[in-house]
Amino acid sequence: MTNPFVIEEIAETASKHAVWHYPFERGARIQQSVAQIFSRHLGGLRSGSRFETEGLLVTGKSGAGKTSEVNHIIKSFNESGPMLPDGSRARIVSCMLDAKGGWKGLGTMTLAALGYPLADTARNTQIQIWRKVTQQAKGQGVVGIYYDEAQHIFRSKSEREQLAILDSLKTLMKSEEWPLILIFSGVPELHGYLYQEEQLFRLLTEVELKDIELPEDFDILHELVSNMALDARLNPAPALATEDFYHRLATGAGFRWGLAIMITSRAIEACHLAGSDVLSVDHFVQGWSSKTGMVPVASPFLNKHYVSAFPKDRLFWKQRIGEETA
Q1: What span, in angstroms and rounded, lies between the C-alpha atoms of 133 and 172?
Q2: Of 10, 55, 180, 219, which residue is least crowded by CB atoms under 10 Å?
Q3: Which of 227, 212, 223, 192 is CA-nearest to residue 57?
Q4: DSSP assignment, residue 80?
């Protein structure tokens, strides 16, 4: 019996795109940075001497694709299973941060990521919490922690609270018992927060995810859309292989790669729902309208004034374009 809340065409598309990854050059830069940082970390462990490790900072605008890029690298790292001096396999765990709490909230979320939940009512000093983190990480072969959307933990905090959080992070990287590689991702403001602690910031390598740049990236956009379509067993319509279409796609995405992928995924859903095997501009219009609630003619794919209607600093979810602009 068909479940009225399951649309198989959408579920199938979402399932494929959840694991689909485009090999951007930026991904190679992140992987190379992680490889260099871990190799120096491994050398420190092999030496048996005290050392301070390093970290990585990945910044980019909302919708740039930071989380998917870093998650892909961490998944690859963990699957490769690098050997540590004690014979265990190294791995990196992920921790999504929010704005709740200060250093104790950070410690609680970090322990939860390590599979060691700590009750909010537990009475632990800052030193005790971070000692538990390093002990748990060492016992599990965890060499690094990825803090996603790390700017949230600093927002709406006083300078004193921010410095306490930064001091906790620095403590993890400089731990005598088990230094931890820290990976941060977030919007550009995160750079400013971390820069407040000079000893922490100097240990970080920064990779900034750039916007789509046209005309330089026309070929990459074409390859991305074509690969996504073919992976979904669809044929791209000839109208998609034009600079006009790709400029409209990039504009609608605020020139952010992650959003361009999301918009293309919605178009592929619309194509499957229509029972077609050819991905066309109409499907991008349908996917856009379904996501935003805009009338089709107001979408960047049909709007005559799309450049002025969709400025880079105002993404589609922050605006509603009326038919009068079309």
Answers
A1: 8
A2: 219
A3: 192
A4: H
